[in-house]
User: What shape does this take?
Amino acid sequence: MGRSRLARVTSAYALCHFVVDLACITCVLGLVTSALSLAGAAAHGLAIVAYDMVAFCLQLPVGAALDVAGPARWRGAALLSFALVAAGVVVAGTVPVVAVPLVALGNALFHCAGGEEVLLESNGSAGPSGAFISTGAAGVFVGGLATFQGWTLVVPVLVGLLGLCAVLVWRCGCSKGEPTFGWSLDARGRCAVALLAATVALRSYAGMVMAFPWKAQAGLALVAILAVVAGKAAGGFASDRVGPRVASVISLGGAAPLFLLSWESVAAGLAATLLFNFTMAITLSQLAGLMPQARGTAFGIASFSLAIGALPALLGVRAASPGVLCALSLASLALLLGGLWAAGERGGS
Assistant: This one.
């Protein structure tokens, strides 16, 4: 029964993750910029910076609030998140300045509610968390494409998809358990959290500047996104199979030399992208293992670190080259191995 519920919760929230990110990106880059008569890379960049900073930074306080509320409230929070995103999509054409905070808050609420429920049900395994987080990248990619199509049915379609998400989550039922918020970290535990957060931030920046020349081709850009999705999903299961430390070395240690060839070789670039994305599930499960009674806070720390790491690239600081990506991969590996040592390599087997 436990495994059956875990599979049901993970698959439902993974599908909803795709839809939520699809709706948010389509709203921000398509509906909002069109309503404000904004166009071009600068306008899109401004919209994304505002949305990303609000959505990802909010996940830290929202995650802590859901920790205090307890498992019985998480399903309600997810249902509220769908309503907020749908409301943002609906009002984007008339009051676009209201739409951005609505979808950003909805996004933050969904990520924390869904992430916390999957972390609780997975009971220390990294695989389900990887499956949950992996679909967001696909939603962002498809949402980015949808913004250029000018499809008039986009609003009712997105609202309908969010309604289906509400049905899926409702059918999952509520997680069991009472509120047990609290965490107490010794010096070694605080060091582990800091190192794990730092590697998330570093990898976030690397992901933002991973601009391979061949990605200008639409077909290869799609394959690259599929490599991101597959890497995030596979990384958690690899961690459960061989342990977090070995999976991290395979991931970042394997990606580093491939990055040196990635500008010229499509195969090397795709392999590096796949391997590089293994470790998000590892860091998330380790943070949750350090804070078992504050999984939402742990999820929020990871999300906040993603925002901090992405900010320099969003503001135009992009040091993109094969050598830089190789160095970032090795530096991230060093931070991650240090974090795993300090954490006592919690989770996985």
